[in-house]
Amino acid sequence: MLKLAEQCLERARTTADKLGKPDVNSQSPEIPNSSPAVKTCSASISASMMSQISVSHQYGHRRACSDEVQKLSTFPTPEVFQMLRAAEIQGYKKELTPLEEASIQNQKLQAAYEVRLARLNPRQAAQKTSLTLSLQRQMMENLVIAKAREETLQRKAEERRLRLQEESNRRFSKNKQMTPAEEEQKALYTAVLEYEQDYEWPKVYTEKIKSSPTDQVLVSSYVCQILSTSEHPIAKLIIHLQCQIYNRLYPVISKDTTQETLTSNLFRHSLPLDTDPLSALNTSQIRSSKSLHCISGPPRPSIQHSRSIGEGLESWENPRCTQQSKQEMENSFEDLESLLSPTSLTMPAALQRLTVAQHLHVVVKEIHNARDRLLSSTMLSLNLPSSPQVKEACLECLEDSLFPPLWPALLALYRQVLFSREETLLQVMDLYSTSAPSVVGVPKKLYPEDIKEPYKAAVEDLQHLPHHRTPQRKLECIVKTLRVICECTEEYCPNPGTAAIGADDLLPILAFVVLKSHMCHLLSECSALEEFIHEGYLIGEEGYCLTSLQSALAYLETLPVPPSPPHV
Amino acid sequence: MAAGGGGGAGGSSSSKTYSFKVVLLGEGCVGKTSLVLRYCENKFNDKHITTLQASFLTKKLNIGGKRVNLAIWDTAGQERFHALGPIYYRDSNGAILVYDITDEDSFQKVKNWVKELRKMLGNEICLCIVGNKVDLEKERHVSVQEAEAYAESVGAKHYHTSAKQNKGIEELFLDLCKRMIETAQVDERAKGNGPSQSGGARRGVQIVDDEPQAQSAGGCCSG
């Protein structure tokens, strides 16, 4: 009997520990006055703890904390990233299972027992024994009852799961062999069904959508609601995919920030968030070596006719190495395959051998896949009507959720790939920053002398671009910039209503606006946008504006450095 | 990849809507801007002028029951921007190459562009060579014979227009659209009736969302 009681106590203690832990974790990032290093350390520790608890992803503790901290200057580690993502849409308290409830109760009992025991006179041994026994009895009872309750609940849950499983089996033909993708879709479908059993609001939406299947706004608000509910299976899937992609991005972008001092110089110029005092000290030194490098570079070949970034940019960057890198690409094909499996996180040798451009290629592909997967799974598991309008509304919501946390890291990778081009552009921007619009070919009639800063409104609009966080918003920003340019020309034109400028005028003005914006990372932003722009927008106004911006950038890169003396 | 895939038939419902991209090429003063402005403002008035003025224009047509959405991309004709052409004309279904009949030099430029387009896009793209400013017939420097012979030799059609007098423009675009539809249909047949996926998906998909273009301010074309 005593032994049993001991076991009970033991059990109560372990459960208490288990329950106590998450509380400790949630407090740790808020330790007052702790240095950032300590904070991130504790954060990454708690993150790894959490990931061990969570079922979906199990990442170990990769490096010692001291290593970790040094690399944290710009981007969070995948572990922290995951935790941040999870925390962002958290705010939901988990219900306790009967067993957990019982152990909490038992803890209280035990505490009470210990208090009483302390109050007892050492001589009242008989009373002590009876107290101990009654405690043991009560704890036992609690546990037995809890266990029975839990079993019933589990049985019910299991029954329900089977029922839902059958329901999804009916939807996904049971006989034929299922691909992993289909398996995944089915699992998600079942999870969504299960979720919908527990909550009322999805049913309300589903009914409404059924009665008006063409209502895009309704679909949007439904999907947005889902994505802001952390417990919904689709919201969980998005976080899972984001973490997977971020894991791929992190090793490359973090390597860069520690090794390349040159990069930080470039970054300092264009990104407001980076304020590294060390790189500022070296600026002049770097400048001179940079300009040498640029002038001796080979003439730029004409623009490649290619949409696939991986090969396109490479051959643009350096025509000589294309052949070689292609071969490398083929050689490392198997490595790539192994990379694509989501489990490998420890930086394999294969990963290190890849060039940055190849990395980008892999990541881009993965993002495309993730987006397609998300869309089709969402459409299917929510039973949305499959009209193109609904699909588009759904995709827009998903992208609004998928891209923002990833974009900074993705951009950093693009910037590494386009490093030398951005460097050239930055130099041009520095040298031509005070030039008149005529330098880039804007005709005199389109910039009246009496206007102090022509096209300032357009420059300001363009400068908002980095602050938008999804491809769609960024594109809208570019379109707005070009429209404002057109409005400006109308304003500047001596006889209003006759301007109607064509590309002959628009492109030079845009080049001027880009020059004034002084943002060389527009090159990377545009490359990323080109990759993720919706196909439907490609030949529309959005596509035209993006193409124009890319042209303006490409033109600026070709300007002579140093500027040739003005003639004309 | 853009050289493959035919014109865009984004047929979601029973009736098809073709979406075509047409690039406009030509030297600075040949009048290509007035040409498109004339075309787009003529029939349906300023409704089709976008807020990007003459740089990017859209037009909806109905040709023999087939709906066509035209997106007309103007390009900068100055020499300094010549290298940028390819990013503009990739994925185009048609190209309109404009020269000034009074300017021999502008015709030479057209020849350069034709070469480049064929190199980049192959034979999929429908080419139109347009001699503009026929109202200045007296000052003609490019002979009709030479121009037409050249066009034929490169598989292009030749047209004479006057943006000033609004001559020949409607015919030019109508003809171009018909040819692009034909090319798209040949392409569809070649692909078989299978689900039209990936392959040509990049090209000419239906623009579902064209409201921003429809509700334009369009104050620019009143003059």
From TrEMBL, chain A:
Q: Which PANTHER family match?
A: RAB GDP/GTP EXCHANGE FACTOR, VPS9 DOMAIN-CONTAINING PROTEIN 1
Which residue stretches, if any, does this entry annotate as coiled coil? none
**Native species of this protein?**
Engystomops pustulosus
Q: Which domain of life is it from?
A: Eukaryota
Under which name does UniProt file this protein?
Answer: VPS9 domain-containing protein
One of the GO biological process terms: vesicle-mediated transport
Database matches in InterPro entries: VPS9, Vps9-like, VPS9_dom_sf
Task: Please name the GO terms that the record assigns under molecular function.
Answer: guanyl-nucleotide exchange factor activity; small GTPase binding
Q: Which residues form the VPS9 domain?
A: 419-565
Listed GO cellular component terms?
cytosol; endocytic vesicle
Instruction: List compositional bias (Polar residues) regions by residue number.
Output: 24-37
Where are the stretches annotated Disordered? Answer: 13-37
The record's Pfam families line, in alphabetical order, gives: VPS9
TrEMBL record, chain B:
Q: Which family does this protein fall into?
A: Belongs to the small GTPase superfamily. Rab family.
Q: Which GO terms describe its biological process?
A: protein transport; Rab protein signal transduction
Q: How does it sit in the membrane?
A: Lipid-anchor
- An example molecular function term from Gene Ontology annotations: GTP binding
**A GO CC annotation given for this chain:** cleavage furrow
Q: Which Pfam families match?
A: Ras
What UniProt keywords apply to this chain's record, in alphabetical order?
GTP-binding, Lipoprotein, Membrane, Nucleotide-binding, Prenylation, Protein transport, Transport
Q: Which PROSITE patterns match?
A: RAB (PS51419), RAS (PS51421), RHO (PS51420)
Q: What is this protein called?
A: Ras-related protein Rab-21
Give the organism, scientific name: Engystomops pustulosus (Tungara frog)
Q: Which SUPFAM superfamilies match?
A: P-loop containing nucleoside triphosphate hydrolases
Q: Where in the cell is it found?
A: Cleavage furrow; Endoplasmic reticulum membrane
